[in-house]
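To the team - flavin mononucleotide complex, inputs and output below.
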Amino acid sequence: MQIAEIVERRSVSPRRLSEPGPTPAQLNAIIEAACAAPDHRRLRPWRFVLIRTEAREAFADLFEAAARETHGKLNSDHVKRAREKATNGACLIAVIAEIRDNIRDVPPHEQWVSVGAAVQNILLAAKSFGFGSMLVSGDKVSTRALTGGLGLAPEEHLLGFVAIGTISKQPGTAERPGAKEKLSYWPKEEIRGVK
Ligand SMILES: Cc1cc2nc3c(=O)[nH]c(=O)nc-3n(C[C@H](O)[C@H](O)[C@H](O)COP(=O)(O)O)c2cc1C
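Output:
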């Protein structure tokens, strides 16, 4: 992958990620890319669950239950929006992190970095196949409806979902910081020819 492709990657709303999504072989390759994330002590603190296409409506029941758990009584618009979040995007993958607080030399923040790197590899691998993608979460991720419905163990967290699909409407260009804002040098004064 060229650096320009990394820089130009944009998140695309799951509403704009239409069929076709990745083939099973492409999905396997995307997950292999995720598993190439930096990972101190090989903890593999991530796993992924593909929500099967034929089960997306059933999965929407969990999103609706999650919204009820968080917000109580829902009106019909709220129900519709909650359910759509489970059915938008050709392909929907739950990202699950197993973060342990008793690992010597690998505090939780290092494990979260590994999870984040795995997600970024998914986004870039999806782009390399020509797909758009986006990581989304929301307050639903910590509900019993979803953590129980996905079968998480007590030490696991649902980070969110990556949606992948064919871009039906291109996003605009992103305003992002660059080296000017985010790179500095130590010491600050010119040293050994490096400014
Ligand atoms: C852990 C995590 C959860 C996120 N959840 C949401 C979300 O629920 N909704 C949303 O609009 N963006 C969410 N985002 C941000 C988008 O994934 C995306 O990074 C952001 O819109 C910037 O777009 P870009 O990737 O094109 O720079 C989340 C990002 C992270 C890292």
